[in-house]
Amino acid sequence: MAEQYEYLRTRMVRRRTLVTAGAVAGGLLTGCAGESKAPTGRTASTASPSVSAAGSSVTPFGRHLAFGADPRTGMRISWQVPAAVRAPYVRIGTRPDQLGGKVRAEVRALHTPGVQGVRSALEQYYVHAAVDGLLPGTTYYYGVGHEGFDPADPTDSARRATIASFRTAPAGAERFVFTAFGDQGVGRAATAVNRQVLRTAPAFHLHAGDICYADGSGQGRKSDGYDPTAWDAFLRQTEPVARSVPWMVTTGNHDMEAWYSPDGYGGQLARFSLPDNGFDPRTAPGVYSFRYGNVGVVALDANDVSYEIRANLGYTGGRQTAWLKRTLSGLRADENVDFVVVFFHHCAYSTSTHASDGGVRAEWQPLFDRYQVDLVINGHNHVYERTDALKGGRVGRAVPVGGSTDPTRDGTVYVTAGGGGRDLYGFPAGVPESYEGKVHGRESVDTFHWTRGGENTPETVEWSRVRYRGFSCLTVEAVAGPSAKLTVSALAEDGARIDRFEVRRGA
Questions:
Q1: Residues 263, 267, 273, 274, Cα dihedral to 10°
Q2: What is the DSSP letter of 72?
Q3: Long-range contacts of 320-323 (CB under 8 A, 24+ apart)
Q4: Which of 37, 171, 416, 438 could bridge 136 with an S-S bond, Cβ 3.0-4.6 Å?
Q5: Are 163 and 141 contacting, i.e. CB atoms less than 8 angstroms apart?
Q6: Distance set, CA 32 to CA 28, 35, 438 (Å)
Q7: What is the pLDDT of residue 384?
Q8: What is the predicted pLDDT for the residue at 202?
Q9: C-alpha span between 268 and 381 (Å, rounded)
């Protein structure tokens, strides 16, 4: 396993093939023929599969997008193929009938060893293309292909039907919407929530971890029940939305797949191509940041600080927290950023089954207070729950359904958006749900939090404001200008609104 980990780290992860601004100006993205070249100073090391199939018989699936470090000019296009292929690529252009030359892609081959009497060894092939030098606020069309399969083939309508589109972030600030949830898995409810996301037409989607549940244990240890084929089903399920909406994931406890590396992140490195501006994208792929319009977004890996699930506790040696401090400081110093949103998996504040993680509170909550983070989004508990505005762990301002808050005065609102599709949890006995149209006022809730020793300690809290036991997704509308605000809403899987509040700074 150590050899496989090094292979993932050194050969499959860091290759970047770029479309430069000069290529755009030269017509590469407007239908000119030819193949892009790796820019000077970049290596192009692609995994060499041992088995290949006739390219014409291999159809790509599971397309999903992610931003580069700058969403205005960069996109990462990823997909899966059921067998090894030669010379994979992306064609991209500003019209669906005029796709440009080939942008080379890389194959990241992932080997899962067999378990006697449980599963056979499995090879999976994930393909990634990095496209930079794009124009801000522009719609692009793309098709993915390989030797023997050309999405722009005018004689094959089925292949041309695989063409999809995306839009880069605007050059300046303008109104936009993004969505979020965690704890998705594969199934009817996950598909229904995906449809709700698609109807919202977001600029991007934040996935707060526990993505697929191929690893059902979630303890960061090898499990005979691990099923890597669940990822095939997941990527097929997600493709209708993620092929056009950047699917920005971070790492949950069920995403620590110990079959691939000491920390369990080899699978995530193979399947996703995320911004590489974290403190070390080779070892912590779910840690990064980006700015879209007037909102700075920060993704964290809470496995590093979790007191509850301790498999990776402290694995970054404090580097992630130091990076977080630098990143939040930089975003707050950026005059173009009105709001800062942070998302990760384990809950800082929740009363449901896993309750609150004291490690998250101890390590990061002081930084959220210091840099006046506007919104924190978590998963882990399979419910929707939302706090009042909190400062120093105490209620700075009650924020009822339809209310508003000012983080410069009141503190940060924490949202548990864990209703993405996996089996639902509940709330403590005797504690009713409370959401839009069904508000049940309650002064306190008896729950618990996890302590440094891995034990849970009872606590009575006054901050649990909204509670909903159902599948749902979070939507956030960002408005810039003199009256800048975030309008945060939660939608049930049928589209009914269950929560709404506003964030205004200096109001």
A1: -40
A2: T
A3: 320/278, 320/279, 320/284, 320/287, 321/363, 321/364, 321/367, 322/279, 323/278, 323/279, 323/287
A4: 171
A5: yes
A6: 5, 9, 58
A7: 98
A8: 98
A9: 21
For the chain, report the end-to-end CA distance as a whole number of angstroms.
54
**Number of helices followed by number of strands (H, E) in the chain:** 8, 26
Kindly report the length of the chain. Answer: 507
Domains parsed from the chain with CATH numbers: 2-167 (2.60.40.380), 176-471 (3.60.21.10)
Cα–Cα dist 181/291, whole Å: 19
- CA dihedral of residues 129, 130, 134, 139 (deg, nearest 10): 40
pLDDT tens figures, 73-108: 999 999 999 999 999 999 999 999 999 989 999 999
Question: How far apart are alpha carbons 248 and 428 in whole angstroms?
Answer: 31
What DSSP letter does each residue of 91-129 carry, written as one string? EEESSTT---SEEE-EEEEEEE--BTTTB--EEEEEEEE
Residue 381 and residue 393: Cα distance in Å, rounded? Answer: 19
Is residue 46 pLDDT above 50, yes or no?
Answer: no
Q: In this structure, what is the dihedral angle of CA atoms 361, 367, 372, 376, given to the nearest 10 degrees?
A: -40
**Separation CA 459–CA 469 (nearest Å):** 21
Q: Which residues pair with 445 in a beta bridge?
A: 461
354, 346 in Cβ contact below 8 A? yes
- The secondary structure of 431-476 as a DSSP string is ---BBTTB----S-EEEEEE-TTS-EEEEEES-EEEEE-S-EEEEE
Dihedral sign, Cα of residue 306, residue 311, residue 313, residue 316: negative
253-290 pLDDT per residue, tens: 999 999 998 899 999 999 999 999 999 999 999 999 99
Return the closest-CA partner of residue 108 out of 127, 121, 123, 122: 127
Within 13 Å, how many C-alpha atoms sit on residue 141's CB side? Answer: 16
Spatial CA neighbour of 271 closest among 125, 379, 162: 125
Residues in contact with 448: Cβ distance below 8 Å, sequence separation at least 6, in sequence order: 355, 356, 456, 457, 458, 459
How sure is the predictor about 161, in pLDDT bands with cuts at 50, 70 and 90? confident
Instruction: Tell me the three state secondary structure of residue 326.
Output: helix
Q: Which two tokens stand for residue 298?
A: 């920060």
Percentage, residues of the chain above pLDDT 90: 84
Output Rg (C-alpha) for the chain, integer angstroms. Answer: 22
pTM, whole model, 2 decimals? 0.91
